[in-house]
Amino acid sequence: xxxxxxxxxxxxxxxxxxxxxxxxxxxxxxxxxxxxxxxxxxxxxxxxxxxxxxxxxxxxxxxxxxxxxxxxxxxxxxxxxxxxxxxxxxxxxxxxxxxxxxxxxxxxxxxxxxxxxxxxxxxxxxxxxxxxxxxxxxxxxxxxxxxxxxxxxxxxxxxxxxxxxxxxxxxxxxxxxxxxxxxxxxxxxxxxxxxxxxxxxxxxxxxxxxxxxxxxxxxxxxxxxxxxxxxxxxxxxxxxxxxxxxxxxxxxxxxxxxxxxxxxxxxxxxxxxxxxxxxxxxxxxxxxxxxxxxxxxxxxxxxxxxxxxxxxxxxxxxxxxxxxxxxxxxxxxxxxxxxxxxxxxxxxxxxxxxxxxxxxxxxxxxxxxxxxxxxxxxxxxxxxxxxxxxxxxxxxxxxxxxxxxxxxxxxxxxxxxxxxxxxxxxxxxxxxxxxxxxxxxxxxxxxxxxxxxxxxx
Length: 457
Ligand SMILES: *Cc1c(COP(=O)(O)O)cnc(C)c1O
Fold this sequence. Notes:
single chain; 457 residues; alpha/beta; 14 strands; 39% helix; globular; binds pyridoxal-5'-phosphate
């Protein structure tokens, strides 16, 4: 008999979880204005709000922290981090930042001017925010297949080369760079193929443009290339990462995802002019160049985390747990973005709560129902997250309306996955009794989903 798959690590330290009653949760969610970001963490049993900064560090990472060098300038922890990044990506210039959006802020301050057009594949919300707040435009060139959640194609995160070429043919002079998000978070944690990265590179070269990878989950992307794309099955994850980044000019990174740390980010590039340009904004916004918003010990932990996560054993354990949960949802017939992506399940809320009109935000309603059912906290990735159109100020109902259940790295067991699956099944079974959603009573202009106040209808 073939041995079953199991984790490539064992547990050395545990953190107690608090369970609650439905009655308590009804009170708490009301006090939180039906916004799950406003809940206190001890009001949550299993937290699937995000996989950002929620992972467990290894004993090697904690050990590295003790060796962190807190020198203001020239910290050895910075050079340890820089050398690791250069070894994995091939990028020579590195600027640490306090998280991914700070990397965007620093680099885009140099590159994005009013009226600019930045094409890409479903820009992440902070990325879009940093483009639109500079009076520039983010143009989504994701393949149409990503919109059909039930279609099983291996690389649903891809850039549509025809759409991208059209943007460049019409507006090349306004495009400062192309941005490719690996994996494509907003489209459901879907990977981008190596072939597609090559195509984007070729189009960029044709128009003399540069390419940035928004790389928060680049290791997950490499794992999918290894398991789904012809010719990569016997390559190491590090070899695949190196090839992926060979098609980019630079990267922004949220280290809170595939860096396996709780806080941090960086910019890396092969171009001295980008480095020189970004430097001018790093110092006032983040700090001196060899720490840029990070502690020495945190840079040391990140260096080890990057090294550790780009090993097959670790990344396979991570992806296989997400696939385990997906298989349980299949048993119950619950529709989610297929095939499951790297870091989360994206439940297709429009299909589950099909009686709730778009104007009443089905995915947010499903998130509330799942919390009431079992104290599980998910996140709406849908019409609320999409913000309003910057010109018309109308809600944007054009995209998908998903409930994202993120899986933290190395935190929960498959027993927790079973609880999530059954709780969702219970809500799914009574979906026809849920006929009204929520309405917005207070919101901000940009990135409203963090602070929006809602009322239950
Ligand atoms: C998380 C994330 C960011 C922003 O990073 P933070 O560390 O949260 O600031 C940018 N892009 C993608 C794809 C992300 O997932």
